[in-house]
Amino acid sequence: EVNVVESGGDLVQPGGSLRLSCAASGFTFSSYAMTWVRQAPGKGLEWVSTISGTGGSTYYGDSVKGRFTISRDNSKNTVFLQMSSLRADDTALYYCAKGVRVVVSATQDYWGQGTLVTVSS
Amino acid sequence: SSELTQDPALSVALGQTVKITCRGDTLRSHFASWYQLKPGQAPLLVIYGKNNRPSGIPDRFSGSSSGDTASLTITGAQAEDDADYYCNSRDTSGNHLVFGGGTKLTVL
């Protein structure tokens, strides 16, 4: 059974940093790209970042590029999202999702329940 | 353009058919995937590729595409289909993803 579980969400002050983790199980982790997607309160889904299965390729949405860094540890079946210079508009529920191939794909077939990041003073 | 446009809200009578559309230039080159989102639950993939349903998704869900528009059709809507639906695709660069604004579907 495939499982994806996010953690690390918290209340953080503007300008602060936070690292999210996503632990996956039930599949050959290194064979699939992983993606972070967020949903701000009352808003729609927004793509944040994707990392290839090998970790050699990373991609970012315009709103987070230069502030967020995605990485993965294939020995621990975990993907990370390091967030810095956080702003109020980064407040959202952050989902981690599994892709369907080793490189970027629009299709995410398994999602976690999300972890809440709140940026506020 | 790498934007995907969806109708904000639709309603359908129980047992009737509804089509949810997603429009964007990138759909001329890339297939859309469709996700169902209910409060407090993880997003659920319902349709991907040309017209593929993941295991466990009822066959009342189907997908189609023509030109710059992708569609998700629910034939014989059930009460449990009351949810938000999002399309997504790869953008015109191919390496970034883009989501539609979502459609809130109400089953009457």
Low-confidence spans of chain B: none
Rg of chain A:
13 Å
Q: What fraction strand of chain B?
A: over 45%
Spatial extent as radius of gyration of chain B? 13 Å
Biggest β-sheet description of chain B: 6 strands, mixed
Tell me the span between the first and last alpha carbons of chain A: 40 Å
Give the low-pLDDT segments of chain A.
Answer: none
Q: What class would the helix/strand composition of chain B place it in?
A: mainly beta
N-to-C SSE string of chain A, H for helix and E for strand: EEEEEEEEEEE
Number of helices, counting only DSSP H or I runs of 4 residues or more of chain B: 0
Number of helical elements of chain A:
0
How many beta-strand elements of chain B?
Answer: 10
The oligomeric status of these chains comes to: heterodimer
Query: What would the principal axes of the Cα set say about the shape of chain B?
Result: globular
Share of helical residues of chain A: under 10%
Strand count of chain A:
11
Describe the global form of chain A.
globular
Main beta sheet of chain A = 7 strands, mixed
Measured as a percent range, the helix fraction of chain B is: under 10%
Question: How would you sum up this structure in a few lines?
Answer:
Chain A is built from no helices and eleven strands. With 121 residues, chain A is an all-beta fold.
Describe this structure as you would to a colleague.
The complex is a heterodimer of chains A (121) and B (108). Chain A is built from no helices and 11 strands. Chain A is mainly beta and 121 residues long. The radius of gyration of chain A is 13 Å and the shape is globular. Chain B starts with a strand and ends with a strand. Chain B is built from no helices and 10 strands. The mean pLDDT of chain B is 95. Chain B is an all-beta fold and 108 residues long. In chain B, strand 4 and strand 5 form a beta hairpin. At the A-B interface, strand 5 and strand 10 of A face strand 4, strand 8 and strand 9 of B.
